[in-house]
Amino acid sequence: MNSTADAPVVLVLGAGAGIGATTAARFAAAGYRAVLCRRTDQAGLDAAVTQIRDAGGWAQGRLMDATAPEDLEAVIEETEASIGPIDTVLFNLGGQIGDRALVDTSPKTFERVWRMATLSLYRTAYAVLPAMAARGQGNLFVTASTAALRGNPGQHAHAAAMGARRLLCQSLSAEYAAQGIHVAHVVIDGAVDAPDTLGKMLGPERFAALRAAKGGEAGGLISPEAVAETYLQLARQPRSTWTFELDLRSHSDRAWWN
What we know:
The chain is of the alpha/beta class. It has one domain (4-193, 224-248): Rossmann fold. Helix content is 44%, strand content 17%. It has eight helices and seven strands, in the order βαβαβαβαβαβαααβ. It has helices at residues 19-29, 42-54, 71-82, 107-135, 156-176, 198-202, 204-214, 224-235, and strands spanning 9-13, 33-38, 58-63, 86-91, 138-145, 181-188, 245-248. It has a seven-stranded parallel sheet, with helices on both faces. Strand 5 (138-145), helix 5 (156-176) and strand 6 (181-188) form a beta-alpha-beta unit. Helix 3 packs parallel to helix 4 (107-135). The protein is globular. It starts with 8 loop residues before the first strand and ends in a 10-residue tail after the last strand.
């Protein structure tokens, strides 16, 4: 394993208790220096960082609002300057606001979701990809959802933002793959066993019941640990076989197109 000073850096944007923090921990276990960012919950962020450090990994955390002017760019600049060149970015920010009819989706809400889910990815890419290209290597992995591929009633803002995000990823890959940058769009097609997302949407009692019925060894919920393993595999792919898009779902779920 590389010394800490030489270890690659992974920047996780959206490091909540679920896919984000779990992926940070998996990369740290593989020898990366993990920088975890999330918008709220300092205690939760501290717990994720402490867990990585207690396991022998390197981690640093910071609260960051990706929609705030310059905050996102400042985190990327500070990471590159004080920690090291960013090898991998996991963009794990979403824009799910629940089901809302069109008449209940105000222009302000629609724009806010777009800023969270799409504009913030553009800003991330604009800030980090040129530096990666100058080094001739790097990864930008984007967690997506079924809404990136299919619109549904009540998902006007979310589906519009996620669909645009998918095309942005395609454009970024088309421009930067030949420069050594691996862009991957990972569709999470199902329910994730994550207290910070599904848990908050369902509430404690319903989430606990769902976990008891479908979680764990039953394999009915998408495991954050398994998603994290997938991201690490993507980071290790040879350039001759880079994956741009894949979809992940539980064995018991139906694919989105059924």
